[in-house]
Design goal:
Elements: H1 7-13, H2 16-32, H3 35-50, H4 53-105, H5 114-125, H6 129-135, H7 137-150, H8 152-199, H9 201-206, H10 210-262, H11 270-292, H12 294-313, E1 330-338, E2 345-354, E3 359-363, H13 370-377, E4 385-390, E5 393-394, H14 400-403, E6 407-410, E7 419-420, H15 421-425, H16 433-442, H17 446-450, E8 459-460, H18 469-481, E9 487-491, H19 499-514, E10 518-522, E11 534-539, E12 542-548, H20 549-573
Parallel strand pairs: 3-10, 3-11, 6-9, 9-10
Antiparallel strand pairs: 1-2, 1-4, 4-5, 7-8, 11-12
Helix pairs in contact: 2-4, 3-4, 4-5, 4-12, 5-12, 6-11, 7-8, 7-11, 8-10, 8-11, 8-12, 10-11, 16-18
Amino acid sequence: MSAPATELRQAIAELRPQFKQALWFSVAASLLVLAPSAYMLEVYDRVVNSRSYLTLAMETLLVLAAYVLMEVLDWVRSEVLLQASHTFDKRLGRRVFSAIFEANLKRLPGGTAQPMNDFRLVRDFLFNPVLLAFMEAPVALLFLLLIFAINPVLGWFAVLAAIFQVGVGWLNERSTQPPLLAANRSAVAAQAYADGTLRNAQVIESMGMLRDIHQRWISKQREFLGLQAQASVHAGFYQALSKFLQNTVSSMLLGLGAWLLLRNQLTGGSAYMIVASILGGRVLAPLLQIVLQWQTVVNARGAYTRLDNLLAAVPVRPTAMPLPAPAGSLQVENLVAAAPGSQVAILKGLNMSLQAGDVLAVVGPSASGKTTLARLLVGLWPASNGKVRLDGVDVFSWSKAELGPHLGYLPQGVDLMDGSLAENIARFGTVDAAKVQAAARAVGLHEFITALPQGYDTQVWRDGARLSGGQRQRVALARALYGKPAFVVLDEPNSSLDEQGDAALAQAIVQRAATGTTFVVMTHRTSVLAVASKMLVLRDGQAQLFGPRDQVLKALNDAAAHARAPQAAATARA
């Protein structure tokens, strides 16, 4: 029983109607390739013998019409395959982008920009000349049968030449595929290393690390270039061998036909000797094109495999029934979680609940699990055990397109994206000016933005390099509060804020909580505690204390006093 078709294979199978159309156009266009040869034979036979100008004119008009039709068919075939590639892009483009995004969140292989390059390679292969060569193979078989009809000896010679050409292609595959695949892996590694270098450009420049970093990149680049050169050397040899075979087969068939003619074993005379020579060259033409373009085949096949593995690792989430907008009540039930791909638990049996409008401050030492908890609360990471429920619904399984507008999230590492300030705050959806300004005012950013020459239309770079750290954090905070979400998670929201920014953050939390927004704030600073209604103390992934803020603070103070008591007594005795 055959294995079920993968998602990528199904997408390509849906293009069969276009492929069939292109195949028929290829067959017709390939047959018309013989028009010049037919014209030559007719001129030598009919025109020269009859010395008729009318015959010459008609034959010339016919061959010109054949040329025009051949070019039209070739153009139509290319357009059909180009349309197939566009259909493929529409069918899978968004899916691949989403899969890359999800793989990055889950820390799976493929969560980089490489799958987009793979997708482009597969899409472009759909109208690549080598695919057209495959489509011309049936006509090459027809030409081979015609050669057999002229004379079996010529036919078997053409078969041997075709077998030899296929053997050259097989040897080309054996010798070039391993270094090409290794070169592709090295190129991906070198590109990833370069991207990481650019992300850390300030650190590298400030501490004089550029020379050593450059040497490491050079070593990766040299590995890639060496493997590519190795593959090119092998491919060049077999391509030259294929061209040699292509160039000599026609002449050898012509010579063999002349030998048969001298032995009176070639029916049809010298004209068929020329026809066999021409047909022999056309038999090998598709095979030569395939050998010359074999590197493209190997690259496309590797891209297909990587893309297929990515889509299999990140399947499409089933469409769930639309749910009502959440009110903001949160339940965390026996939550156990590890980083994706790891078996080491970071959160261990966490339980808590919040009502709409609650403000929870989460405190604890570094590596206690605060950032992991933030990611689970907004559904970025799956739980190993237990659930995070918002209004009774599992947050991780809830469609992010549906839930996202009702959530606000400020990660610990703030990143802005290419676009205007307004677009960043509006989450790159339809910019509602009133909502954008309301979110900016809530974090004390409106006056700063309006003082800029272009105001809310000011463009920022991907990392927000035109803004200070505190300004970037405020823009990201405004983005989290945009549209009055029901549930907001802030991971160290005041790490880059000054005193004024701290006050604006506290005021924004109080105002939004009064309208029913639930807040969870991971923090090391005590300023957020003043506006918190509840408090969670995490230590080693477990809830050390949880409850109303004043009760938790009292318990912490009592524990601290109890811990100081022996030391105070010892000091008094001394």
